[in-house]
Amino acid sequence: MGLTLTWLAIIVLLPLAGLFLKSFELSFAQFVDIVTSRRTLNALKISFGLAFLAALVNLVMGGIIVWALVRYRFPGRRIFDAIVDVPFALPTAVAGIALTTLFAQNGWLGAPLAELGIKVSFTPLGIFVAMVFIGIPFVVRTVQPVLIDLDPEIEEAAASLGANRWQTVSRVILPSLLPALLTGFALAFARAVGEYGSVIFIAGNLPNVSEIAPLLIVIRLSEFRYADATAIAVVMLVVAFLVIFLVNRMQRWAQLRVPAH
Amino acid sequence: MPETAIAVPLERTDARSEPRWVRGLLIGFTILFLTVFIVLPLVIVFAEAFARGAHAYLAALADPEALSAIKLTLIVAVISVGLNLVFGLVAAWAIAKFEFPGKTLLISLVDLPFSVSPVISGLVFVLLFGAQGFLGPWLQDHDIQLLFALPGIALATTFVTFPFVSRALIPLMQEQGTAEEEAALSLGASGLQTFFRVTLPNIKWGLLYGVLLCNARAMGEFGAVSVVSGHIRGETNTMPLLVEILYNEYQFVSAFAIASLLALLALVTLVAKTILERHLDEGQRPSEH
Amino acid sequence: MSIEVRNIVKKFGDFAALDHVDLTVPHGELMALLGPSGSGKTTLLRIIAGLDWPDSGEVAFDGENALSRAPGERSVGFVFQHYALFRHMTVFENVAFGLRVQPRSVRKDEAAIRARVKELLDLVQLDWLSSRYPSQLSGGQRQRIALARALAIEPRVLLLDEPFGALDAKVRKELRTWLRSLHEEINVTSIFVTHDQEEALEVANSVVVMDKGHIEQIGTPSDVYDNPQTAFVHGFIGESIVLPVEVDDGRVRLGDTPLNIAAERGSSGPSKLFVRRHDMQISPCGWGGLEGTVRRVRTFGPIQRADIVVSGNRGETIIEIDVPRDRELRDGEVVGLQPRRYRIFADRI
User: C101 vs A259: CB contact, 8 Å cut-off?
Assistant: First the structure.
């Protein structure tokens, strides 16, 4: 018991406490200065904004994928089901160079896209693509068990009450999946915000344009500007926790569905 | 007896399925999306690694830098998986089988490394042990090199892989409850005997599952390790770090050769995981990520 | 509305859930489909509702083909065994669902919907729960809300799948009475599925006994109890004593002993003799040659119960009968047996 707590404290709590302690070495004005500098703001905007968009795509595509995997039978279904976890298991650096090569202007997908005038690698679009990749498993895996366990009778009840299929899906099934969908969205978002390895290769890393916040932390560290790195990290942590907290509240609200008295 | 259906219409409106074209569309979307985002990146890793033939591929792997990176990666994985095996087990045991104040806090702490950017995880170790860090001066005085060396890499890896084992075990152990342990204790078994003969056999698949995922992440961790390693060639470069360096130096075959080993590890992990989940499906499936 | 089911066949793989089933349900009937699990009763109900489709056969509502219509177009109210209430909707919204999903052209306005829902909640006596969520209700309340929801669309048929199966014994008894009186009030053709004979006999005014995809008998509750038409019905409803006998052109033998009774003229082959337990008496001389050896006697309250071993050509059969307490029985005593009423059914091959 004591051992567990001690271990947790050493390996988890102490480092994070150190982070916040370090940020207290800065005066408030200094902190605000760092955080509101143009480059930092842009990096945070890019990380959070693109992560939000990527998580939205994951929400929609994840919903479609999990529906197809659970409800339909098609050749290769089990294999597609298994490879949904690849972004969990594949080291991020490997994913990064693979996506970059794939979407480079002479790459398998990059070349045809370039003909359409769409440039992916070394642009913000590339960051978005990498974030979508990294977020695929979250929505699928949080919704999958819920969808499998969904009582078939509620769909039959809706149908026998005269609802057409679309009404059944939108008014009965989707609300039942909403808490799981939101959880998956939040997890995908949190992961995409902090993602480093799979993004930096494809990003181009142009300050103010395609430079993500984690990369800026690494750059500040290599310049020995520890305070700057720490300030950015603190903002990222706080915002990420706020978002997760918010989604948790929404999820609880969706789950309980008990009107406030 | 052959029967001819007269009254049954050909196109039945099943209460629980969509029109054929909707089904086709959704399946098509799924296959297309997963092929573009998952199958193609995997294929391209191997295609690029063998772009100049098997000979170049093997030569890239036989390079001393590559060998030293592989060795370092294995050592780091052994250390961090070992540490997390022991402490993850203990943490899961404490959370699942005992009631104590602060338990919910403890559960959320276990998950913490998952919700923190790996770069930030690396950063906190630099802040702790770096030259300007809290413990930096003391470490220097005693001539202990943590950062930019094996201990720092192992420590950071242990931090980011901490949740895997306990995450896999907590639901399993909670579901199994304490009845069997209490029975064993009442029959005169000692605490350790109870653990090894009752608890451990019950959770062995879940444990293996956690270790498997922990190992995959430990070998593949990039962000946190990148920050604490110092990138000293031939010394503190793990396989993912070497991939980055080689790639940035346009040595694509070498970069993808190392990457192919890591991709192989990921695929093996996934296959093993799928098999394990079938074992675990009899009990409860541990939560992922 | 009347329901006509003709020659329905439904297979799940090799298993025939329904094997050429015919059934007519007159308007206003309260009918029970009674049978053990796997007898096909739920499948039949789901086919009538449009939730399953037969491999062949016909279903007609008031003479009109129903199979060509989707479940939502059949105006069938279906009540599920586990209620299938929408968990994310209040009781009010659950009941209103069927009204809200109607095509715009026929949909009632909001005020009319509210009035209708209120009326239904009054009918099931739960109007005070309208803003609760299903998770806040008891099992019995949920079942009544499920019923109100099914009634909202003014169904021409009400179908209930094991409506009381998931409830505890006391609530079940209350709801039975309630369902009967509700049916008298709204008088809509209703069919419910149950495996509980007491429930079927008590609630329904006609009972359909099913086994292995066949209908064994259709009749009033007293009919199926007093005049079972098949061995299965006799064995499934009420308690029966069963003795294997041999019939040879209408003459009945138990082992080597000819019994002083006649089976149907011209019938032959292995058969079973069915006697209700309360119809079997001990008599000094027996009945023809029917006799047995007392094995074990126990008494509780006014009843004395005895195991009696009867030997026949297919080995010994132990039957359990009730004996008045004033008749003294000893272990090993040989007694004669006399049924007040009996039935003989030839074994199915």
Answer: no
Give the CA radius of gyration of chain C.
Answer: 25
Q: Do A18 and B255 make contact, defined as CB atoms within 8 angstroms?
A: no
Question: Which chain A residue shows the shortest CA-CA distance from C150?
Answer: A161
What single string gives the DSSP state of each residue in A82-131? HHTTHHHHS-HHHHHHHHHHHHSTTSTTHHHHHHTT---TTSHHHHHHHH
CA of A258 vs chain B CAs: smallest distance (Å): 24
Contact C101 A164 (CB under 8 A): yes
How many other CB atoms sit within 10 Å of the CB of residue C333?
15
Rounded distance, CA C340 to CA C22, Å?
Answer: 34
Nearest-neighbour CA in chain A from C72: distance (Å): 4
What are C220's two structure tokens?
């009033």
CATH hierarchy code of domain A25-257: 1.10.3720.10
Structure token pair of residue A55: 């998580």
Cβ neighbours of residue B93 closer than 8 Å, sequence gap 6 or more: B169, B173, B199
Smallest CA–CA distance from C49 into chain B, residue? B15
Q: Which of A70, A51, A35, A62 is nearest to A127 (CA)?
A: A51
Q: Which amino acid is at C251?
A: R
Where in chain A are the domains?
25-257
Are the beta carbons of C52 and B1 closer than 8 angstroms?
A: no
pTM of the model: 0.84
> How far is C-alpha A54 from the chain's CA centre?
7
Helical spans, DSSP H, in chain B: 20-34, 40-49, 53-62, 64-97, 103-115, 118-129, 136-141, 150-160, 163-176, 179-186, 191-194, 200-220, 223-229, 239-248, 252-280
Q: From CA C244, how far away is CA B7, in angstroms rounded?
A: 44
Per run of 10 residues, the mean pLDDT along chain A (length 261 residues) is 57 69 80 89 94 96 96 92 92 95 92 91 93 94 92 92 92 91 88 92 90 93 87 85 72 56 33
CB of B247 closer than 8 Å to CB of A99: no
Q: Residue A258: what are its φ and ψ, rounded to 5°?
A: -100, 125
Contact C51 B7 (CB under 8 A): no
Helices (DSSP H) in chain C: which residue ranges? 41-49, 91-100, 110-123, 139-152, 169-186, 197-203, 221-226, 231-236
Q: What was the ipTM of the complex prediction?
A: 0.89
Residue ranges of B 21-60 with Cβ closer than 8 A to chain A: 23, 26-27, 29-31, 33-34, 36-42, 44-45, 48
Give the whole-angstrom CA distance, residue A73 versus residue A185: 26
> For position B96, what pLDDT does the model report?
78
Which residues of B fall within a CB distance of 8 Å from C57? 3, 5, 7-8
Q: Cβ–Cβ contacts within 10 Å for residue C64, how many?
A: 11
**Which chain C residues contact residue A258 at CB under 8 A?**
133, 136
- b/e per residue, C111-140, with b = 16+ CB within 10 A? eebeebbeebbebbebbebbebbbeebebb
Q: How far is B19 from chain C (nearest CA, A)?
A: 13
Give chain A positions within 8 Å (CB) of B26: 64, 67-68, 72
Q: Which residues contact B275 (CB under 8 A, 6 or more apart)?
A: none
3-state percent breakdown (helix, strand, coil) of chain A, nearest 5: 80, 0, 20
Q: Looking at the partner chain, which of A85, A108, A244 has a beta carbon nearest the beta carbon of B270?
A: A85
pLDDT tens digits for range B194-224: 888 888 888 888 889 889 989 999 999 999 9
CB-neighbour burial class of residue B202 (10 A; exposed 0-12, middle 13-18, buried 19+): middle
The residue count of chain B comes to 289
Map tokens 């098609």 to a residue.
A74
In this complex, how many residue pairs, one in chain B and one in chain C, have their CB atoms less than 8 Å apart? Answer: 34
More confident site: B245 or B91: B245
Question: What residue type is assigned to position B190 of the chain?
Answer: S
Q: Is A59 on the interface with B (CB under 8 A)?
A: no
Is there a contact between C195 and C162 (Cβ–Cβ < 8 Å)?
A: yes
